[in-house]
Amino acid sequence: MKKVCIVLAALLLAAACSSDTRLFKEAQLATSKGNFTQAIQLYTRLLKQQPQNAAALANRGLLWERLPVKNAQERAKNRSYAEQDYLKSIEANPNLPETYNNLGALYVDTGRNMDAAFYLTEALARNPRYFTAYMNRALAYYRLGRTSSALADFNSAFKLRQDEPLLFLNRGLTYFALGQYESAVDDYTYMMSLDPDNARPYLERARAFIKMGYPANAYADLEEAVTIKPTYALAYYYMGDLMYRKGEKDYALGLLVKSKELASQYVPTYDLMGDMLAVEDPVAATANYMVAKKLDPAHAAKYDAKIQMMRTEQGREKVLAARFFPR
What we know:
Number of strands: 0
Oligomer: single chain
Radius of gyration: 24 Å
Helix content: over 70%
């Protein structure tokens, strides 16, 4: 399933208590300048004086998420701090929908999608016209496999705003997952009008055209995608697949080599190249499967089976047919 992008709410920018207005404003100013560490320190000072200041807790929580990190361990630690601040903020003031949204978005980002859906529903109960909460809950539903519920939330968001490109990308991906390819094409096309310099909708529309049986349209979109973003490895991957199916084998392999150069860790490219080479060069095909196996040990059995099949002519033909001529 394609990953859908996440939307987070902005800082709350709520008014602080009169005795703490100076610290609150200084923290806001530091945030606006990108001085997140300083802003966190200022909110911490304020919270020592007013530990139940819900706005300060919520704002500090979001700053923990935005703080640059050196590694995954540090990111996990900061997310834990953010979660604690959001929960304390909700306890201090259970009426702020922004805090529920931010906590829900954090849970989406960390794979806790059931928890995310719960808190985002709480956000919408407090503000039924909360565009960002609909977007985030849709993502939680999408990742839970509840694509119809995700689509319903994207449609609710659409009723509130039609100027956010991410809405049309996300809803297009949801239509695609539901097999509604024409609707997906419509959303990607509209996104192009909102964000013409973004290569992503061209790639996604190409994927929909492939499903609809329009390879020429798909290839044209992929060419536009790499014109906008010459380093778009995934676009070269799909171009290679299309060219092979058209009979342009050498050109197709060249496109996959380009994709590898741009994204050497992308496993499907090695798998696809292996399948392309299965009949004509089983040694090279095996080499590609071995790289795929190394990069993707969770599916080692799949690549071991293909490597085994390279030993016989019948096996090689079966691999090629399974990819390009499925029954």
